[in-house]
UniProtKB/TrEMBL annotation:
Listed name of the protein: DNA-directed RNA polymerase
Matching PANTHER family: DNA-DIRECTED RNA POLYMERASE, MITOCHONDRIAL (PTHR10102:SF0)
Key word Transcription present: yes
Protein role: DNA-dependent RNA polymerase catalyzes the transcription of DNA into RNA using the four ribonucleoside triphosphates as substrates.
Localization of this protein: Mitochondrion
Keywords: DNA-directed RNA polymerase, Mitochondrion, Nucleotidyltransferase, Transcription, Transferase, Transit peptide
Family per similarity comment: Belongs to the phage and mitochondrial RNA polymerase family.
InterPro entries for the chain: DNA-dir_RNA_pol_helix_hairp_sf, DNA-dir_Rpol_C_phage-type, DNA-dir_Rpol_phage-type, DNA/RNA_pol_sf, RNA_POL_N_sf, RPOL_N
GO molecular function: DNA-directed RNA polymerase activity; mitochondrial promoter sequence-specific DNA binding
Domain DNA-directed RNA polymerase N-terminal span(s) in chain numbering: 376-691
Signal peptide: none
GO aspect biological process, one term: mitochondrial transcription
GO cellular component: mitochondrial DNA-directed RNA polymerase complex
Length: 1310
């Protein structure tokens, strides 16, 4: 056997996109460099040096040497670039085939279909470009083979598995060699089947396999998804063949605590090893909603009318996983009986307990206990959504049955959903049964229907029918009114969404199963050991998620989703009633709840699934949230820290650092920088955001719930409306103008009704989640959009939400106000009332003058004078009033421990970045980059400039200017000034201004004409104020235009056969100051037609590389570049504040911390902005573009009669004679490629050949840029196409503003 165990030195690459994308070319074609804004001498921390050991005032930019050099470091990301001038169908198809075979292999192995899995392996092996990575697939098969055995008598023996490995590799997969993962499988199997046999024989086998290792024992031992804790214990303690130092870090932690110590007989499962699962066995107890759950009493908090008692119990006990087990209650009770609090509490508001603690030791003990308990609860929070929903529906059905309420149209929504579930489940089970049958059926007996079912069968049986049924119902209800479809959803979106949810459930179950299998034998109960196990489990999840690289094919998703939706639409009905035209009596019946149809949307015909209006009405009522529950919620423990591009956030739900919308190009660049350790500071910044602990503001929630339960209209919460009331119909012969007006008015009423219903549902959602999390300590995991901006992963309730959401949130940790904190709390209140354009002392004075109003608002929020409701942000104002009132109850208000976040907002932050980039002194002054005695108001200043322009125009007799000059207020121009920096178009700006002028002019047509006129003056005023900044904005757009219209030189010779014009494949790509590569994702989508039993749907292929959309690339680049800078500034500030121990949160350009820490945070914001802009970012960008796109060409039209045109025509005539066919542009690209290869050769003869070689590009290169400009043709009739080297335009001149002046600008963020 050992003769096959050759040690090959090949690099075993496990990474997903590097694997996939590398296969599409040979290494010689990989030359596009990822440009990084780092110094060529990169600083890396030593293993013993942590980030926190650095000086807290050190900027992350300093750590990566960003500020020390303008040089650029380049490296190859190691994948085939996406901007080729051609598309190679052979390699594209090979990649797609691999991507389609991978999930099929995974499914067959999971189900134990080894013969089918082996057949798929054979297909993968046949793909030559995949051959070097094939061993990874074989090892997956081998692991399953070792588990279920290849013999009729059960698991195979050690020798049988060993022979199977090397015989199969030699006979079936020649040229493929084993690796260290193969060795891990052999070792695991040897221990599993041989630990009770002869110890000497077992030791000999293990020794033999260890000697086969290609990269040493560490590489073998790191495969924790193969080797279990039991394996490690036997290898170290029993056999003593492996050293602890060779174990993965998280496993070694456990051994440091004497896991399976040498005094124990580890192999016999004594001591710390049990068969019972111990403390790590996940709670899977039955969910019983019939019992009263006293532990969820919220200390007298009034229940929301929208949720009855059982619904609330389900939210708390099952779906949210927030209930406390008996064991957890015992641990809490033990802690509470230490005379810290009365032991008579029947509920636990953790925030109240936390606030009552007196000593640091008590707080530390409580924090440790809460973290331990919440880790267990978090697992339930993520894992039990479908079970909870099903049980809730069943309970309500049984209760309604007892009360005789199962007849009629007024059944509770949960009752209806349970009826759907019971009708749908048998049909889903039957479909699963047929899928199982077709997988085992003789191929010769397969019918046409069997062949179709065989495509999706392996995926259909991965998840239990019960869960798939619930998932389908929940997903379809949650998609209501999405994608521009009122009272329905797009069919393509629905089928993909349902299948994705099933896939997500499968992945979560698989991860949990693997984790349970790894840790099931641990049973030590000391708190210290539990913490180590938790740490080990985190690391295990990290390594498991790192390996996740498989996505179900889109066509499989479409077919699976359509089948599940078809079954649901077949059985789902809703109660209806109507009047019998004959008897004139009201009758009731059942109608389909969903139906499939087509409708036009933006000029396109769409297949849609519509929802019956009666069900839509039910969904808008109060029990929506108790029926359709959120799945991504705030976390009870700190999120898994981001360590790689696909590893962070929730415990069992995989997330990517970047929200890419299935953009493999962005993922490939992200993977490259992550593997090279370039974006560790990005991870650090995002982790700071996720580590901020929050809780719900109980006082504010109480006010909201009382208001909500009245059902009336309050602030931006609309009143309950159950029925749409339209205007009565007109007479049949009504005037057409009146009829048109009647239709318009009814449309407005319908839109208003739909809008109010949506707003109330949204408010209901937020309040339900807030109520469930009252008294809890929770966190918001974050990730980034493609520009680097941070967003919480929990979408429904977070600090990026509206005023209601923000008013409900406070920091878990409290800090003493002190004199500065008290001042900032008052300033914060003034800001919330819109009193934010005055000096700080005036804002403090404003708050102090309203102390009586503050007290009344805090103590009588509903029945008082209601001063807080006058604020721009009333709910946040109420929270601040309560905080200030509580502080002033103390003898010294500065002693008050505050939990209230205080915000510091930038002054039109996008313009602040543009002013720094362009060096505009006046612009920088107006956005508070220059020190001033009072804050500047850029919106008011632009309004002033606009009025000046209008007055001049009016003096010259311009009637529109005369009408408008007295009507220009700050708010008229504010939104346009704010969005101008982000690329708002003239049409968009006109609409913005029209919203402000419509109340003045009343008639929409008149208002629109004046708005259109005024837009020109607003744009001109902004350009005047930010002249250099706008030149940069124009430069960015021009760069994007030429880049997206460029062509790469490395054309494949095979593409010459068709001679077609090359596609424009080049995205605009740049690197942020923190090393994050940004890839603009704007490409023309290609759709794939998939026939389903609902309709033929058109789905996008996430792995298809399509030409770029040049228009979107150009329009998107200027705002996206600025967003990437403000995102960098935010992350830099987060890192700095995190290192200094501040609680930090951010809403893009609004930064939050405790009142007492605002001054510290503000200093950090200024310092990081200065360090960011001290380097000429535009010059760096130009250098990056010059390097990245240096070998690219662009197409231009030149005059036929010009000197260059005449030379080109003569050259092409000669070439045409030589080729004996018409010359194509692909010919010219190929010849230029060869010329450059000759010039780059080390062979002097080839270099000389290149110098003497004439190409169309070399001809054009003889002329200067000015000469070519003079020869350019505006018309294709008078011009000819010419290839020229891509030229990034020169940078526009910069103004004289020095960003270091910002150091003393106290109103920069205020």
């Amino acid at each position: 056997m050992l003769k096959f165990a050759k040690k090959f030195g090949h690099s075993y690459e496990k990474s997903f996109f590097r694997d996939v994308l590398r296969r599409t070319s040979s290494p010689k074609n990989i030359h596009t460099s990822l440009i990084l804004n780092t110094h060529s001498t990169k600083i890396t921390l030593k293993p013993t040096e942590s980030v926190t050991s650095l000086d807290p005032s050190t900027s992350a930019l300093d750590v990566i040497n960003f500020t020390k050099s303008k040089e650029l470091t380049t490296f190859s990301p190691g994948f085939e670039p996406f901007d080729r001038t051609y598309r190679n169908n052979d390699t594209d198809n090979a990649t797609k085939e691999v991507m389609n075979l991978w999930p099929l292999l995974e499914a067959c192995l999971h189900l134990g279909y080894l013969d089918r899995a082996f057949s798929i392996l054979t297909s993968l092996y046949a793909i030559k470009t995949h051959r070097q990575f094939f061993i990874d697939d074989f090892n997956k098969y081998l692991l399953k083979y070792s588990e279920i055995g290849g013999t009729k008598n059960g698991p195979c023996t050690v020798s049988q598995l060993e022979n199977h490995v090397f015989t199969t590799l030699q006979t079936n997969f020649s040229g493929v060699d084993y690796n260290d993962r193969t060795v891990s499988v052999l070792i695991h199997h040897s221990i599993k089947v041989g630990k009770t046999a002869d110890p000497e024989k077992l030791a000999n086998n293990i020794n033999k396999y260890l000697s086969m290792g290609l990269k040493g024992q560490k590489e073998i031992m790191k495969n924790t998804d193969i080797l279990t804790l039991d394996d490690y214990i036997i290898l170290i303690n029993d056999l003593k063949l492996v050293k602890k130092e060779d174990l993965p870090t998280h496993i070694n932690f456990l051994f440091e605590k004497k896991l399976g110590n040498e005094g124990d007989n580890a192999s016999n499962m004594n001591g710390c090893i049990t068969n019972g699962g111990g403390m790590l066995q996940e709670q899977r107890h039955h969910i019983d909603l019939d019992k009263n759950v006293e532990t969820l009493d919220k200390d007298g908090i009034e229940e929301l009318i929208s949720v009855d008692t059982i619904g609330m119990k389900v939210v708390r006990q099952t779906l949210l996983g927030l209930s406390l087990s008996d064991n957890q209650l015992e641990r809490l009770q033990k802690f509470l009986e230490q005379d810290i609090l009365s032991a008579n509490h029947k509920s636990f508001n953790f925030m109240d307990i936390y606030k009552s603690l007196k000593t640091e030791e008590e707080i530390k003990q409580f924090d440790n206990l809460l973290e331990e308990i919440n880790h267990e609860r978090q697992i339930q929070l993520e894992r039990r959504a479908t079970d909870a929903a099903r049980e809730r529906w069943r309970h309500d059905f049984e209760e309604s049955k007892k009360r005789g309420e199962l007849v009629g149209i007024k059944k509770k929504l949960n009752v209806t959903l349970w009826e759907w579930y019971e009708k749908m489940l048998p049909l889903v089970e039957e479909e699963v049964r047929r899928c199982q049958e077709v997988l085992t059926k003789d191929k010769s007996l397969l019918t046409a229907a069997d062949d179709k079912r065989l495509q999706y069968a392996p995926y259909m049986i991965l998840v239990a029918p019960e869960k798939m049924t619930v998932i389908t119902i929940l997903d379809l209800l949650k998609l209501n009114s999405t994608g521009g479809v009122i009272e329905g959803m797009r069919t393509a979106r629905a089928v993909i969404s349902v299948a994705k949810s099933v896939e997500l459930e499968f992945r979560s179950e698989k991860l949990l199963k693997n984790e349970s299998n790894q840790f099931k034998t641990v049973n030590k109960n000391s708190p210290e050991f539990k913490m180590l196990v938790k740490r080990a489990k985190f690391s295990f999840r990290d390594s498991e998620l790192e390996k996740s690289k498989i996505l179900w094919p889109q066509d499989i998703r479409a077919k699976m989703g359509s089948i599940l939706i078809s079954i649901l639409t077949h059985v789902a009905t809703v109660g209806v009633q109507g009047r019998d035209p004959v008897s004139n009596k009201m009758i009731t019946g059942e109608a389909p709840a969903f139906y499939h149809t087509y409708q036009y949307h933006n000029g396109s015909k769409l297949g849609v699934i519509k929802i019956h209006k009666n069900l839509v009405s039910r969904l808008s009522e109060d029990d929506l949230v108790s029926a359709v529950q959120p799945q991504l919620l705030p976390m009870l423990i700190k999120p898994r820290p981001w360590k790689s591009w696909n590893n962070g956030g929730y415990l069992y739900t995989q997330s990517h650092l970047i929200r890419t919308k299935e953009s493999p190009e962005q993922i490939a660049y992200l993977k490259a920088v992550s593997d090279n350790g370039i974006i560790d500071k990005i991870y650090e910044g995002v982790n700071v955001l996720g580590d901020t602990a929050w809780t719900v503001n109980k006082r504010v929630f109480e006010v909201m719930s009382k208001v909500w339960n009245t059902g009336g209209d309050f602030l931006k919460i609309p009143a309950v409306t159950t029925e749409l009331r339209l205007l009565p119909p007109l007479e049949r012969d009504a005037d057409p103008a009146k009829l048109r007006d009647w239709k318009l008015q009814n449309k407005l009423l319908a839109n208003e009704f739909s809008k109010n219903r949506s707003m109330r549902c949204d408010a209901n959602y937020k309040l339900e989640i807030a109520r469930a999390f009252l008294g809890e300590k929770f966190y918001f995991p974050h990730n980034l959009d493609f520009r680097g901006r941070a967003y919480p992963l929990s979408p429904h309730f977070n600090h990026l939400g509206n005023d209601m959401s923000r008013g409900l949130l406070i920091f878990w940790k409290g800090k003493r106000l002190g004199p500065q904190g008290l001042k900032w709390l008052k300033i914060h209140l003034a800001n919330l009332f819109g009193f934010d354009k005055t000096p700080f002392q005036d804002r403090v004075k404003y708050a102090e003058e309203h102390l009586a109003d503050i007290k009344d608002s805090a103590e009588h929020p509903i029945d008082g004078k209601g001063w807080w409701k006058e604020a721009d942000k009333p709910w946040q104002a109420l929270a601040t009033c309560i905080e200030l009132n509580e502080a002033h109850k103390l003898k010294n208000p500065e002693d008050y421990v505050s939990h209230q976040p205080v915000h510091q907002d930038g002054t039109c932050n996008g313009l602040q970045h543009y002013a720094a980039l362009g060096g505009d002194i006046e612009g920088a002054t107006q956005v508070n980059l220059v020190p001033s005695s009072r804050p500047q108001d850029v919106y008011a200043y632009v309004a002033k400039l606009v009025v000046q322009r209008l007055e001049k125009a009016s003096a010259k007799g311009d009637e529109k200017a005369t009408v408008l000059k007295d009507k220009i207020k700050r708010k008229v121009v504010k939104q346009t000034v704010m969005t101008n920096v982000y690329g708002v178009t003239s049409i968009g700006a006109t609409e913005q201004i029209n919203k402000q002028l419509l109340p003045v002019f009343r008639e929409r047509g008149v208002s629109f004409e004046y708005s259109k006129y005024l837009t020109k003056h607003v744009f001109a005023s902004i350009r005047k104020l930010f002249k250099s900044a706008h030149l940069i904005q124009d430069w960015l757009a021009t760069c994007a235009k030429v880049i997206s219209k460029s062509i790469r030189i490395d054309v494949d010779e095979r593409s010459l056969k068709n001679g077609t014009k090359p596609d424009y494949m080049t995205s605009v790509i740049w690197t942020t100051p923190l090393g994050l590569p940004i890839v603009q994702p704007y490409r023309d989508a290609s759709k794939k037609q998939v026939s389903t039993n609902l309709q033929t749907v058109y789905i996008s292929d996430p792995f298809q590389v399509n030409p770029v959309n040049s228009r979107k690339q150009k329009a998107g680049f200027p705002p996206n570049f600025i967003h990437s800078l403000d995102a960098s500034h935010m992350l830099l500030s987060a890192i700095r504040c995190g290192r200094m121990g501040l609680s930090f949160a951010a809403v893009h350009d609004s930064y939050w911390t405790h009142a007492c820490d605002v001054d510290i945070m503000n200093e950090s914001l200024r310092d990081e902005f200065i360090k960011l802009h001290e380097v000429d970012l535009i010059e760096r960008l130009k250098n990056e573009f010059d390097d990245r796109y240096r070998n690219y060409l662009q197409i231009m039209q030149i005059l036929r009669s010009s000197p260059a045109g005449i030379k080109l025509l003569v050259y092409r005539k000669k070439l045409e004679t030589k080729l004996n066919r018409p010359v194509t542009i692909m010919d010219e690209i190929y010849l230029e490629k060869k010329r450059r290869e000759y010039l780059a050769s080390e062979d002097k003869a080839l270099v000389d050949k290149g110098k003497n070689m004439e190409t169309s590009v070399s001809i054009i290169s003889q002329y200067s840029e000015e000469e070519l400009k003079s020869m350019e043709s505006a018309s294709s009739s008078s011009g000819i196409i010419a290839l020229t080297p891509l030229k990034i335009p020169d940078i526009p001149p910069k103004g004289d503003f020095d960003v270091r002046e910002l150091k003393n600008s106290k109103y920069f963020f205020s």
